[in-house]
Amino acid sequence: MFLPRLGVAIWTTTPWTIPANAGVAVNDKLVYAVVQVHEPPETGLVEDRSGKGGKNNIKFGSGLHNPDIQYLVVALDLVEALQSKWHVKLEVKGTLLGSELEHSRYTHPLFQRECPVVVGGNYITTESGTGLVHTAPGHGQEDYVTGQKYNLPMFSPVDDEGNFTVEAGDFQGMSVLGDGNMAVVEALQKASHLLLQEAYVHKYPYDWRTKKPTIFRATEQWFASVEGFKEAALNAIADVDWFPPQGENRITAMVSGRSDWCISRQRTWGVPIPVFYNVNTGEPLMTQETISHVQEIIRQKGSDAWWYLEVQDLLPEEFRKEADQYIRGNDTMDVWFDSGSSWAAVLKTRKDLKWPADVYLEGSDQHRGWFQSSLLTSVAVQGSAPYKKVLTHGFVLDERGLKMSKSNGNGIDPEVVIEGGKNQKEAPGYGADVLRLWVASVDYTGDVMIGDRILKQMSDIYRKLRGTLRFLLSNLHNFNPELDTIQYENLPMIDKYALFQLANVMDEITESYRCYHFYKFYQLIQKFAVVDLSNFYFDTAKDRLYVGGTKNFTRRSCQTVLAAHLLCLVRAIAPVLPHMAEDAWQHLPFSHLLKDGSKCDYVFESGWPLIEDQWRSLSADNVEYWKALMQIRTEVNKVLETARGAKLIGASLDAKVLLSTANEALLSRLIQHTKEDPDKLCRIFITSQVEIIRSIEEAKSLDINYTGIYNLEGQGDLWVGVSKADGSKCERCWNYSPKVGFFPNHPSLCERCHSVICEGAEIKYQTATVV
């Protein structure tokens, strides 16, 4: 009853695609209404709906007055909104489902051809428009998929320059993004098929180089089918180690959903696809003979030869007589095919390299790019992936988390970071190692930030690491590993514990490198070298290094441990901080020998440090005890700080520490720990004396002003007291001792320093006698 005066109302944001219209898509689950148009506004009337004068003008078209179309099909849910927008009354004459509209036909508004109504995808909604979508398979991905489903013609009347072709009729030669767009709108108005025209703000893809809207069009391309080896590609993915692990899920999903690979591009540069076309039939000519011939030409003359040589020179001998019947193809190879086959051009042709590669490294966007193209080409030819491991990283942002760009002026030049800017005060040079340390410090699996503040922090950490190495080097100046090393079984417990910690840290650092978790290396080396060593072992070591005699056992045992730390840490930091590591290596106070007995001149010749098994042999009980001891040291420092704040003491050597605990096993170990240097508790706490009280009740009864009770994890309560140290201060070691003043020849020395001084005097006397 509505035919032939029934039309379908569609909307589009790209009028230039109307000449390529091949169908109208509906949502099969939506309800549509047949409406009759009443009281249309005057044709050409312009209404300003922005309230700002001309910013959102709406122009009513002649289609609302077309006597040949009195009824329109629109989505039922949009009738009220369309009445308001069109300034008309829409009378609903009937309703039907979108599925009932399928396969009905309409006449193209500008060309005398019939097109079908088809069912589209979920992109058809009632959020805007009319609920019916103009479909041009030659100009959009969703339209293309729908067109394939219904075998719609693939109109794409736009040339390489972005102008309409002869297929577009009267629009031929017009720019689709320029005068051609408006020409289509005017043609619709002239044909009384334009309902309304308005300025509409929406998202649309722009070319990042030219900053112009992108033109989508269907063109003839070369495709490589992936279906034949997709399963093999998925199996190859599973055989690769992915860092981070989620990279495997990402590339697996991409390859699983891929059936074809478009390997041709229309560019004025690149590797040409070696195909010839018959000038009359357009049939392609590509055989093993033609490919081999072109391959040899490019091998000798480069890929440009494809463009400057005559066709007859590009064809092999058997086709040259027919050269006038062929033209060369202008398509170039997809650059991802070029880079994706680099494994063949590099790994397979260089004797010093091997296939597959140990690791491929690129940004996280390359799962759809280089990683995938390399995988597909290699699996297709070799049957396996071209890499054993794949590591992906994020992108560098400024300190505010913004993307770096020239237009924002927030880019950071690595050369300026390393060497400094023109104004060295405002942009100091940090050196390559600081930049490398920053790279190691961040979790590269996501986007990372860098800026002046961050670089200054890295510079501070760098200097602290350098200070750690300087301490190690300076305290080994008279140490000969071959003569002075103390065997592990003879080392004091504190030194065994230090080597135990070193072994554990080196194991973790080795694992972090193996897994490419460089940020874990950074965290480990910072905590261990800058915090743990400096705050504990170095602090406790200073007394025996500076106060003990040069050949004193406790000093040699400490130097044995320091040498082990130096040789491990220098080589551990070398991959990240090569300049610092080499600088330290060149200042080793002793020679490090290789397995063949020769001197190792450079740090990278030394190999990765091998940890001795006995360093890890500390018993579980001893490990737990030393953990408890570190907790006790922390609590002791708290009470010392309180006493220092109250002016009872100045330095910690002014103090005597009193300890008590209800844990009998711990109490027994603490008593043992007060007897032998350098394991004495006073050396560990850096105080002059430590006294163990048998019970907490007894300890509480003492007249001690500065105390505290703390709960040790897994060990029970600990009572800590601090008083002034007994005796007088030794002018040499600054420790307090009741024995100061006891020795007539050195009344200002304690018993330990007196022994050292007298030993030194005896050695000098004996030396003089021998001479």
Automatic annotation (TrEMBL):
This protein's GO cellular component annotations are: mitochondrion
Give the Enzyme Commission number: 6.1.1.5
Q: Which enzyme class, named as a word?
A: ligase
Nucleotide-binding in keyword set: yes
Statement: the UniProt record of this protein carries the keyword Signal: no
Catalytic activity field: tRNA(Ile) + L-isoleucine + ATP = L-isoleucyl-tRNA(Ile) + AMP + diphosphate
* GO MF: aminoacyl-tRNA deacylase activity; ATP binding; isoleucine-tRNA ligase activity; metal ion binding; tRNA binding
Cite the PANTHER family for this sequence.
ISOLEUCINE--TRNA LIGASE, MITOCHONDRIAL (PTHR42765:SF1), SOLEUCYL-TRNA SYNTHETASE (PTHR42765)
Q: Per its UniProt record, what NCBIfam families does this chain match? A: ileS (TIGR00392)
Organism, scientific name = Ceratopteris richardii (Triangle waterfern)
Report which superkingdom the organism of origin falls in: Eukaryota
Instruction: Kindly give the Gene3D superfamilies that the UniProt entry links to this protein.
Output: 1.10.730.20, HUPs, Ile-tRNA synthetase CP2 domain-like, Valyl/Leucyl/Isoleucyl-tRNA synthetase, editing domain
CDD domains from the UniProt entry: Anticodon_Ia_Ile_BEm
Q: Which UniProt keywords apply?
A: Aminoacyl-tRNA synthetase, ATP-binding, Ligase, Metal-binding, Nucleotide-binding, Protein biosynthesis, Zinc
Q: Which residues form the Methionyl/Valyl/Leucyl/Isoleucyl-tRNA synthetase anticodon-binding domain?
A: 495-658
Domain named Zinc finger FPG/IleRS-type is located at: 727-753
Give every Leucyl-tRNA synthetase editing domain span: 105-160
Q: What is this protein called?
A: isoleucine--tRNA ligase
Specify the taxonomic lineage.
Eukaryota, Viridiplantae, Streptophyta, Embryophyta, Tracheophyta
GO BP terms in the entry: isoleucyl-tRNA aminoacylation; mitochondrial translation
Record domain Aminoacyl-tRNA synthetase class Ia: where = 206-449
